[in-house]
Amino acid sequence: MPALTLLILLIAAVTRFVNLASPRTLVFDETYYVKDAYTLGLFGSERKWPEDANLSFEAGDVGSYLTDASYVVHPPFGKWLIWLGLELFGADNSFGWRFSTALAGVVSVLLIILIARQLTGSLAFGNLAGLFLALDGHSIVLSRTAILDGLLTMMVLVGMFLLLHSDAAMLRRANRLSMVRFGFQPWLIAVGVTMGLAASVKWSALYVLAGFGIYTLFSEVKARGKFDQSPYPALGQGLINAVTLLLPALATYVASWLGWILGSDGWGRQDRATWWEALWAYHQNAYSFHTGLSSEHPYQSTAFEWLLSLRPTAFFFERYYDDPTCGVLSDCTVAITAIPNLVVWFGGLLSLIWLTRQAWLGHRAAVLVLIGFASTWGPWVIYLDRTVFQFYAVLITPFVALALTLAVHHYWRRGIWLRQIQTRERRIRNLVIAVVLVALYFMSIWMGLTVPYWVWRIQMLLPIWV
Question: Where along the chain do its domains lie?
Answer without folding.
Answer: 3-21+93-256+293-465
